[in-house]
Amino acid sequence: MKHLLACSLFMVVSVPIAAQVLQDPTRPAVQAQISRSTESVQQQWVLESVVSKKGQHKAIISGQLYAQGDKLADYTVTNISAHAVLLVQGAKQLKLELYSNEIKQ
Predict the structure, then answer these.
(1) Which of 36 and 100 is assigned the larger pLDDT?
(2) Model-level pTM?
(3) Long-range contacts made by residues 58-65, C-beta under 8 angstroms, separation at least 24?
(4) DSSP class of residue 100?
(5) Mind listing the pLDDT tens digit for each residue in 57-66?
(6) How many other CB atoms are found less than 10 A from the CB of residue 69?
(7) Distance between CA atoms of residues 7 and 39, nearest Å
(8) Is 55 exposed, middle or buried, given 0-12, 13-18 or 19+ CB atoms closer than 10 A?
(9) Residue 59 and residue 70: Cα distance in Å, rounded?
(10) What distance lies between CA 25 and its chain's CA centroid?
(11) Which residues contact 70 (CB under 8 A, 6 or more apart)?
(12) Beta-carbon neighbour count of residue 77 at 10 Å?
């Protein structure tokens, strides 16, 4: 009877310990919530590729295809070269580049 009582007491005490939620070590880290302002959206834009066909360039920016004159949020795609895209909003200019100018050692 003492053993049954001891086992019951052990099970009641150990349930909260076993009920703890364990973190999955392979789960990606949760990003801080990003505001929906234009500045935060700009930081997410990534020039992934430039496609040339018959002398005309098109750019793939963050998974979407854009041509010169297309709108990207409040910006207009004004120039697409082989390695960069120029976005303009009034007096503001934003240049997205395919490759970083940094030389890695």
Answers:
(1) 100
(2) 0.55
(3) 59/85, 59/96, 61/85, 61/96
(4) -
(5) 999 999 999 9
(6) 8
(7) 60
(8) exposed
(9) 10
(10) 20
(11) 76, 77
(12) 21
Structure tokens at 27: 């789960």
Task: Give the long-range contacts of residues 51-58, CB within 8 A, separation 24 or more.
Answer: 52/82, 57/81, 57/82
* DSSP category for residue 86: E
pLDDT digits (tens, 9 = 90+) for 14-43: 555 555 667 777 776 654 443 344 454 456
Question: Quick check: helix, strand or coil at residue 103?
Answer: coil
Question: Letter for the amino acid at 42?
Answer: Q
User: Contact 74/67 with Cβ under 8 angstroms?
Assistant: no
pLDDT at 37: 45
Q: What string of H, E and C letters represents the secondary structure of 19-85?
A: CCCCCCCCCCCCCCCCCCCHHHHHHHCCEEEEEEECCEEEEEECCEEEECCCEECCEEEEEECCCEE
